[in-house]
């Protein structure tokens, strides 16, 4: 291109190698001679810049001198100069990369935006402890790569948003202390507050979508909204998992205070607590229109009510004002979202705090102390982070713009907060603590702080919200980290202000006293009946509004819409690694009298304090001195009661409980019943046994001697063992957010909707039975012995060598649709159809080429040719390894020598199929306790296929070279082998024998184990050996034999010699002798 | 530049299978043999024409971001098409396809068009994966299959364009909700959203359903 142009320096020959230092020097020369962009040199310059980039990349891997030269000549300055000319923008900086980053590109052009953000993302991928200094200027506190990028965190284009998230994660993981401090001090609050705000807005949209879509019209939109929420949670979790303490503290605080508690948790309480009087299931959330929500949002955005602390009024007033001002989501959505939170996020301070609030917080949150709290507010006039879902008062961009200026880097809302180290100047006593790690260890809380906290400690009616709110300096962080039994490393640190802790637990001294007073009666209670325990728990639960909502949601009498989410939440809660197990004992352990040890632990943890600031001597780790015993209030019995109610409902024919709900509740029942000990009590086992009987009765309704029942039964078992419920996946499915539906046309999976029609009701009944039976077995520790339905004998494996002497074999040609053709012998066992070809080494033995179960066989006559049968053999379903969609093993036309043989084969197969299925039905009958079916009885009536009396198993030989002598020795004596002719003897009592010529004389059909003469004439095996020997390829092409190819080949060669030796005998084919 | 639709693509597959090279060849018609592990080429766009309509393809390279679950998740979901690439000279890259596909299927929207690409078809002498194997895999999993060479440009255009055609057909059938940008499809600025297209899409769906019933 520029080769033809002479003006750029003839003295510089163009180096041939496109990747070399010489070439770079040459290009540098071009740049230096073309500092001004014009029409004439535009093309040259573009190509030169491109080549330079290429050489740099090459040099990065191959020649470090390239980059040195690049730096030495400050070539980036050329880039910038050229860029400025093009864009007409003038920027001054000696930091060229950063200049490019902060260059005001036209980001409204989607392509420019895409290239720009990709460029930033690419740079971030290259960040490490060394390169970070090219981008982050420690002295000027300047980090444009990061600050510019996060401005686009909410860009409408999803790929841009993803790129921003990638970039932020790449930045955080560099772990450069100075850079991270910058991130935390200058950007964390604005970025995270905005992030959290948009997540919340998004959730309101999701909620509106759920409310307005009773007819499943916008499933796709809902899908996207749910997926987006999951993206957010995963992103947050990815940040938290980088384990950067400072960052995590800020993020945790914002999440809890701005989103999870005000929006998720409070939405949970909408009906039971906010409106204790009207406990109508139709709470205002169901009635509240999207307009109200929008209005609420607007109000907040306008800041109309943002100055009013949200929970300062008495309940009734508050209710009204809330309707105007507080956004919330429906209880269903809240349960669903919280489940997702617990499924994804494992960061202790977040999940433990949330779990604690859900399980432990009591009514005082709503009812008491409001006045005092108001007073507190007024007296302190503090501007703590409010516990509400509200919009950051400055846009992120604004906040970042001003971040260089003193104290303006946070939103006003945060500026007075004592939560940040950089905010030292401010706000009186409350600012005495900060998060700076260096300071934390040395600074002490101010005395005013302590006195304030201690005064609060005596307020037994402290509002939880305000508690968290008012929790000091370290505020939020302290809250999170000092939750009882918090898994945080610093949770053990004692503090002088143990009160924060007890605030959180709502255990005040007063309460403690009360509890102590009630101790004796509590221990007496252990001997109480289950009814009285339940009654007590029911009484107690009223005091725990959030937990009550969750447990109340388990009520399925109307439908299981909400119950499913409550189950998901409980499941997620119980399985979250970040939630301390002792907290879960409230749900999972029955109240015990010897609570001493456990309670002591809990209590000491509760009282152990949290103020990390107090590193002084009087802090005692874990405060062992305070071993006040507090009997744990357990709700284990209540939980089990509710879960069992769901399971019981599932066993009703008209139940409105979906399978997925049943499965989840059954799982939780097990956990709840096993408690900490892992062993269920006798009472529980008895209850589950009764449940099992009910489930069996339900399934029994559908038990018919109908072909389809067996198939459904095995199918469902297969499906269930193959796809055990995955709750995480379940909670990714937006479809469950819509009210339960019945129709399969909704596209919703069977387990997630109600059964439609008799067939699906049968399937549901079967599955319910499996689930509950499994629960029973697991609780009792019994092994499963009856499922999957066992076959009386194991299947022969393809390739096995079988002793077929004296077996019934029918010679046939198998013709497949594609025209492939094989010759085989058909053998029929009790349960299986086996196609064999003669073993070339052992007379009378055969190699199984295809094995199918009789049960899964379809038999059809051929209209055109009476000698033919159309057979379809399906793959057997065996437990979890079975084929789900019925896989066809072989579908082919079987051509027999004549129509008699064809009929014989048909009858034998049909009979075998019926019998195999009957046997399985009997097994099911026993499982379902169908009356009249008792012990297995039919087994003896079936003689084994193979001639060895008393040996049902086919003789197997894995290799051709196995010990033949041994096999011969074990051969049954009854076989007849005369003069090279195999004589077949039929011992079955089955009806098909009547087809044969001679059997017509036999009246007795069964019960006779004695050999009967048999007649289905079968073939001289050797004739067919000869046939088989020729088409070796046939063997190979048969679908099931692919693994046998090498063997088949080798055998065929031997066979050839065998056949040639025995050639004369071929002529004696078809002779049948009857004994 | 004006376009009727914009389709977002992602390219996935093991490292070193030539993802970036495919992108470069398609958007820039160049082949760059000496290439860092994906630096620089992270994004590319090109205009193509289907059915007389200008369609812009935006290709986002996702390499280097596997460390974060949130990121891979989101990428899959934001794309209308995915090129799943393996290297015909390296069997292991073929063996990993199942994992890639599982990931894609789990995270993407169900309508995403996935094209299987066996790259480096110019290196016939070093071939380890037969073309038939690629075809069989594609058939089994319902993918479109093609062997390409980013070096010689063989089939590269076709790979991208055929994928676009399939997406376009799905739009015509009304399978994609084109008003929902989360699908990785965007309607061009001059294209009216309310009228023609969605109407046509609706009619398509109705027609198909009707056929099924009868």
TrEMBL record, chain A:
Residues 1003-1019 have a biased composition (Basic and acidic residues). Residues 1050-1059 have a biased composition (Polar residues). Residues 220-590, 632-930 form the CLEC16A/TT9 C-terminal domain. The keyword Transmembrane does not apply. Keywords: Autophagy. Residues 49-86, 90-172 form the FPL domain. One of its GO terms (cellular component) is Golgi apparatus. Residues 599-629, 945-1019, 1034-1075 are annotated as: Disordered. The keyword Chaperone does not apply. InterPro entries: CLEC16A/TT9 (IPR039272), CLEC16A/TT9_C (IPR045820), CLEC16A/TT9_N (IPR019155). It holds the Pfam family CLEC16A_C. Residues 991-1002, 1034-1046 have a biased composition (Low complexity). One of its GO terms (biological process) is vacuolar transport. Belongs to the CLEC16A/gop-1 family. This is (apollo) hypothetical protein. It comes from Parnassius apollo (Apollo butterfly).
From TrEMBL, chain B:
Keywords: ER-Golgi transport, Golgi apparatus, GTP-binding, Lipoprotein, Membrane, Nucleotide-binding, Prenylation, Protein transport, Transport. Residues 193-214 have a biased composition (Gly residues). It holds the Pfam family Ras. Signal peptide: none annotated. Residues 191-214 are annotated as: Disordered. InterPro entries: Rab_GTPases_membrane_traffic, Small_GTP-bd, Small_GTPase. GO terms for cellular component: Golgi apparatus. The keyword Disulfide bond does not apply. GO terms for biological process: protein transport; vesicle-mediated transport. This is (apollo) hypothetical protein. CDD domains: Rab2. Coiled coil: none annotated. SMART domains: RAB (SM00175), RAN (SM00176), RAS (SM00173), RHO (SM00174). GO terms for molecular function: GTP binding; GTPase activity. It is found in: Endomembrane system; Golgi apparatus. Belongs to the small GTPase superfamily. Rab family. The lineage of its organism: Eukaryota, Metazoa, Ecdysozoa, Arthropoda, Hexapoda. It is a lipid-anchor.
């Amino acid at each position: 291109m520029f080769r033809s142009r002479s003006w750029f320096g003839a003295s510089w020959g163009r180096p041939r190698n496109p990747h070399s230092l010489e070439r770079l020097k040459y290009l540098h020369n071009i740049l230096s001679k073309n500092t001004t962009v014009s029409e004439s040199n535009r093309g040259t310059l573009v190509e030169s810049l491109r080549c330079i980039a290429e050489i740099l990349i090459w040099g990065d891997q191959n020649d470090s001198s390239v980059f040195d030269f690049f730096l030495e000549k400050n070539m980036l300055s050329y880039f910038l100069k050229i860029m400025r000319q093009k864009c007409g923008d003038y920027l001054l900086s000696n930091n060229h990369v950063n200049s490019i980053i902060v260059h005001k590109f036209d980001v409204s052009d989607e392509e420019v935006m895409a290239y720009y953000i990709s460029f930033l993302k690419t740079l971030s991928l290259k960040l490490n402890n060394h390169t970070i200094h090219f981008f982050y200027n420690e002295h000027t506190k300047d980090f444009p790569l990061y600050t510019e990028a996060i401005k686009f965190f909410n860009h409408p284009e999803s790929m841009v948003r993803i790129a921003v998230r990638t970039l932020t994660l790449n930045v955080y993981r560099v772990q450069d202390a100075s850079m991270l401090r910058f991130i935390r001090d200058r950007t964390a609050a604005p970025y995270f507050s905005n992030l959290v705000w948009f997540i919340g807005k998004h959730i309101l949209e999701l909620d509106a979508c759920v409310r307005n879509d009773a007819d499943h019209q916008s499933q796709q939109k809902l899908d996207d909204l749910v997926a987006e929420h999951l993206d957010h949670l995963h992103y947050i979790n990815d940040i938290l998992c980088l384990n950067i303490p400072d960052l995590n503290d800020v993020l945790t605080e914002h999440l809890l205070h701005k989103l999870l508690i005000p929006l998720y948790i409070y939405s949970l309480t909408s009906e039971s607590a906010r409106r204790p009087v009207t406990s109508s299931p139709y709470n205002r959330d169901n009635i509240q229109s999207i307009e109200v929500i929008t209005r609420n949002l607007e109000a907040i955005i306008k800041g109309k009510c943002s100055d009013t602390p949200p929970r300062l009024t008495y309940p009734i007033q508050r209710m009204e004002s809330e309707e105007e001002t507080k956004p919330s989501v429906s209880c269903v959505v809240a349960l669903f979202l919280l489940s997702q939170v617990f499924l994804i996020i494992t960061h202790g301070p977040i999940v433990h705090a949330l779990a604690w609030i859900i399980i432990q917080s009591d009514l005082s949150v709503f009812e008491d102390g409001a006045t005092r709290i108001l007073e507190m507010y007024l007296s302190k006039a503090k501007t703590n982070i409010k516990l509400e879902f509200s919009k950051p008062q400055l846009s992120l961009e604004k906040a970042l713009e001003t971040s260089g200026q003193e104290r303006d880097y946070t939103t006003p809302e945060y500026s007075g907060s004592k939560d940040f180290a950089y905010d030292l100047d401010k706000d009186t006593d409350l600012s005495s603590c900060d998060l700076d790690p260096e300071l934390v260890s040395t600074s002490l809380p101010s005395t005013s702080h302590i006195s304030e906290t201690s005064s609060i400690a005596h307020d037994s009616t402290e509002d939880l919200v305000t508690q968290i709110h008012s929790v000091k300096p370290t505020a939020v962080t302290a809250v999170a980290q000092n939750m009882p039994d918090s898994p945080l490393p610093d949770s053990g640190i004692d503090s002088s202000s143990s009160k924060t802790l007890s605030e959180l637990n709502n255990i005040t001294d007063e309460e403690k006293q009360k509890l102590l007073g009630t101790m004796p009666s509590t221990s007496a209670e252990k001997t109480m009946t289950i009814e009285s325990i339940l009654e007590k728990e029911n009484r107690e639960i009223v005091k725990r509004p959030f937990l009550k909502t969750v447990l109340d949601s388990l009520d399925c009498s109307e439908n299981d819409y909400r119950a499913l989410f409550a189950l998901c939440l409980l499941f997620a809660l119980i399985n979250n690694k970040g939630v301390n197990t002792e907290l879960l004992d409230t749900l999972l352990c029955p109240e015990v009298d010897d609570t001493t040890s456990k309670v002591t632990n809990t209590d000491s943890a509760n009282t152990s304090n949290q103020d990390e600031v107090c590193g002084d001597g009087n802090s005692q780790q874990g405060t062992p001195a305070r071993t006040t015993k507090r009997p744990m209030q357990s709700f284990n019995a209540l939980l089990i009661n509710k879960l069992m109610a769901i399971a019981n409902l599932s066993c009703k024919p008209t139940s409105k409980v979906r399978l997925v709900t049943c499965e989840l509740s059954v799982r939780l029942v097990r956990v709840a019943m096993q408690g900490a000990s892992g062993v269920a009590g006798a009472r529980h086992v008895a209850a589950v046994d009764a449940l099992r009987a009910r489930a069996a009765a339900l399934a029994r309704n559908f038990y018919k001697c109908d072909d389809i029942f067996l198939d459904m039964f095995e199918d469902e078992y297969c499906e269930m063992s193959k796809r055990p419920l995955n709750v995480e996946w379940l909670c990714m499915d937006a479809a469950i957010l819509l009210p339960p539906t019945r129709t399969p046309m909704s596209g919703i999976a069977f387990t997630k909707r109600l059964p439609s029609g008799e067939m699906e009701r049968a399937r549901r009944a079967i599955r319910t039975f499996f689930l509950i039976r499994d629960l029973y077995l697991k609780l009792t520790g019994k092994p499963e012995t009856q499922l999957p339905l066992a076959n009386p004998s194991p299947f022969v494996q393809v390739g096995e060598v079988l002793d077929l002497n004296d077996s019934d074999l029918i010679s046939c040609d198998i013709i497949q649709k594609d025209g492939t053709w094989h010759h085989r012998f058909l053998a029929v066992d009790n349960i299986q159809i086996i196609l064999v070809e003669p073993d070339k080494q052992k007379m009378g033995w055969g190699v199984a080429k295809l094995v199918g179960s009789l049960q899964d066989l379809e038999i059809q006559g051929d209209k055109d040719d009476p000698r033919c049968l159309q057979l379809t053999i399906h793959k057997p379903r065996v437990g979890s390894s079975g084929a789900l969609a019925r896989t066809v093993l072989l579908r082919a036309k079987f051509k027999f020598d004549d129509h008699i043989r064809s009929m014989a084969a048909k009858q034998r197969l049909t009979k075998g199929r019926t019998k195999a299925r009957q046997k399985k039905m009997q097994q099911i009958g026993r499982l379902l306790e169908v009356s009249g079916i008792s012990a297995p009885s039919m087994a003896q009536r079936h003689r084994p296929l193979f001639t060895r009396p008393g040996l049902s198993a086919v003789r197997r030989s894995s290799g051709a070279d196995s010990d033949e002598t041994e096999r011969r020795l074990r051969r049954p004596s009854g076989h007849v082998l005369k003069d090279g002719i195999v004589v077949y003897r039929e011992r079955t009592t089955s009806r098909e024998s009547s087809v044969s010529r001679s059997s017509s004389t036999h009246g007795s059909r069964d019960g006779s184990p004695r050999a009967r003469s048999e007649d289905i004439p079968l073939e001289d095996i050797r004739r067919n050996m000869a046939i088989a020997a020729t088409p070796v390829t046939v063997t190979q092409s048969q679908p099931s034999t692919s693994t046998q190819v090498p063997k088949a080949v080798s055998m065929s060669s031997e066979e050839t010699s065998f056949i040639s030796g025995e050639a004369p005998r071929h002529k004696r084919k078809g002779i049948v002798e009857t004994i | 530049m004006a376009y009727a639709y914009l389709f977002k693509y992602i390219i996935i597959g093991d490292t070193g299978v030539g993802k970036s090279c495919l992108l470069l060849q398609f958007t820039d018609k160049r082949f760059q043999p000496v290439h860092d592990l994906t630096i620089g080429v992270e994004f590319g766009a090109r205009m193509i024409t289907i059915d007389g309509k200008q369609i812009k393809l935006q290709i986002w390279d996702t390499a280097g971001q596997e460390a974060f679950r949130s990121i891979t998740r989101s990428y899959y979901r934001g794309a209308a098409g995915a090129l799943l690439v393996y290297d015909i000279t390296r069997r292991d890259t073929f063996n990993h396809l199942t994992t890639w596909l599982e990931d894609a299927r789990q995270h993407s929207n169900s309508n995403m068009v996935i094209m299987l690409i066996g790259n480096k078809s110019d290196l016939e002498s070093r071939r380890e994966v037969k073309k038939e194997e690629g075809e069989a895999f594609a058939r089994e999993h319902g993918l479109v299959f093609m062997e390409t060479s980013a070096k010689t440009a063989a089939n590269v255009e076709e790979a991208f364009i055929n994928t676009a055609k399939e997406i376009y057909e799905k739009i015509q059938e009304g399978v994609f909700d084109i008003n929902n940008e989360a699908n990785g499809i965007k309607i061009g600025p001059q294209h009216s959203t309310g009228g023609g297209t969605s109407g046509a899409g609706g009619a398509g769906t109705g027609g198909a359903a009707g056929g099924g019933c009868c």
